[in-house]
Amino acid sequence: MGIFDFLKNTSSTSQLPILLTDVHSHLLPGIDDGARDLNESMSMIEEFYEMGYRKLITTPHIMQDYYPNTPELIRQKLDETRGELVKRKIDITLEAAAEYYLDEFFLDKLKNKQELMTFHDNHLLFEMSFMSESPFLKEAVFLLRSSGKIPVLAHVERYSYYFKNFQDIEDLLERGCFLQININSLGGYYGKPSQLLAQRLIDKEMVHLLGSDCHNSQHLEIIRKVRQSKYFTKAVNLALINHSIEP
Fold this sequence. Notes:
Blueprint lengths: L20 E2 L15 H13 L4 E4 L2 E2 L8 H17 L5 E4 L2 E3 L2 H8 L11 E5 L9 H10 L3 E4 L12 H9 L3 E5 L9 H12 L5 E3 L5 H10 L3 H7 L11
Parallel strand pairs: 1-2, 2-4, 3-5, 5-6, 6-7, 7-8, 8-9
């Protein structure tokens, strides 16, 4: 199958472009600010399946002060959720990585070579404060690259300090940091500035990964609408890493 052969839903009700693989979500039950319990996890996963997704790489928060999750706990929740998928005969592949918050605790994990949860070809998803760029950013990108990991900045379009400093994003790319944008940003869910920045990144083909960042069913309702937009189609037709991750 060619890289874009799967981009159209083959159902009789829709010819909208789809992704087979999502790389950013919060679907494991009771582990962060995403799914509250197993039933909510199942409900959201079923909605992903209905939209044509066949693989979900869910990424629970790891944030020292709020969500001090560990690889062991994440794997435990993953096994629990996979077991329920089998019981309900939902034919979708579920894997887990993490969304790390970039602070001094994360930097210590890097320096001490602690286990870090990655996906695909050693990609690591991380986020920062929405108010100010992390003072550890450049060092973290260097350490990740030096250890053979590919840093992926989550929802780059949502950081307000990049709205008028596009050159800082270009600098990140030059340092080897990959960029992920949220689908819902394309519909203005996080505000007009985020929408415009996401569109600019797509126009310049600077997007490596497209993610749902799904926390709840409301997010999925908006994704259904955004799938009809010009920029979603344009994003899906980029050479996204999503397309390289087999379901």
